[in-house]
Amino acid sequence: MGEDRPCTGPEGRSQALKPPPERLYGRARGHRLRSRQERLLEVTLPRLVYDPSWRPETLWLEVGFGGGEHALAQIVAHPDVGLIACEVFVNGICSLLSRLVPEGGEATAPLPGNLRLWQDDARVLLRQLPDDSLDRLFLLFPDPWPKARHAKRRFVHPAILPLLARVLKPGGEWRVATDDPTYQAWVQEVMAGTTLFRSATPATERPLDWPPTRYEAKALRERRSPRYWTFTVAKAMPRP
Ligand SMILES: C[S@@+](CC[C@H](N)C(=O)[O-])C[C@H]1O[C@@H](n2cnc3c(N)ncnc32)[C@H](O)[C@@H]1O
Questions:
Q1: How far, in Å, from the CA of 122 to the mean position of ligand 1?
Q2: What is the dihedral of CA 84, 86, 90, 92, to 10 degrees?
Q3: For 179-237, where are the E strands, in sequence order?
């Protein structure tokens, strides 16, 4: 699928969908960091940074973990699975680190062996990962970029699908959730236009083994209706 392929917008009008820009995310730093957060970034983060020599047998990747609720619940529920958690927002990274490390324990606290962090655009990591390396990919409540002229910034984008399909193992899963109606229509449309993933009907209730996230809680409080998709990559299993 070409990066400049025109696409019909979810609002029903045709638009020439531009390729994604180099940076997909809005802001990478919010309010000023406290000294404990600075120490977590300086001392704890380097102990968790993903290194390509780390090759667990089962590998999952979460794009945009926000405060880290889902990533932490998954590594506790699945101690045999390795999870790379990606986030570009520094305050989110601090939030996850502060849940892992007690006050004063930045340098010595034991860290979970099955978690690694990636603090840059997830697409940079995806490009570096070998073929067939991921068992599961999570994209939970991505930034919706609801204006049509910002569609190129959405993580779900025709140009990214070949990259995701390449790194997923045969049978690998891509879980996507969003509460934004424009993004819901967008996911349906983009995924209907590809043969790289099997089509999927979204669930209207969060499946049991999907730990909740902060953005989901906010959406439910504000009476929005999230949708949850599980797309399976359409790749042949290797012959035995
Ligand atoms: C709306 S928040 C949702 C956070 C979390 N998944 C949740 O459900 O609470 C989206 C997050 O994705 C991050 N993000 C956006 N684009 C990204 C990218 N290309 N790579 C890594 N993180 C990204 C943003 O910094 C933001 O924290």
A1: 9
A2: -80
A3: 227-232
Q: What DSSP line would sit under 68-87, residue for residue?
A: SHHHHHHHHH-TTSEEEEE-
pLDDT in tens, 20-49: 776 666 556 677 888 999 999 999 999 999
Q: Is the CB of 43 under 6 A from ligand 1?
A: no
pLDDT of 10 above 70: no
Q: d(Cα 24, Cα 240) in Å, to the nearest integer?
A: 40
Q: How far apart, in whole angstroms, are the C-alpha atoms of residue 47 and residue 25?
A: 25
Query: Residue 101: which residues within 8 A CB-CB, separation 6 or more?
Result: 40, 44, 109, 111
Identify the pLDDT of residue 31. 76
Q: Which pLDDT value is given to residue 102?
A: 84
- Helix H or strand E encompassing 98: helix 90-100
**71, 149 in Cβ contact below 8 A?**
no
Question: How far from chain centre, in Å, is Cα 13?
Answer: 28
Which of the residues 143, 179, 180, 209 is marked catalytic?
Answer: 143
- The atom of ligand 1 lying closest to the CA of 216 is 8
Distance of alpha carbon 63 from its chain centroid, rounded? 2
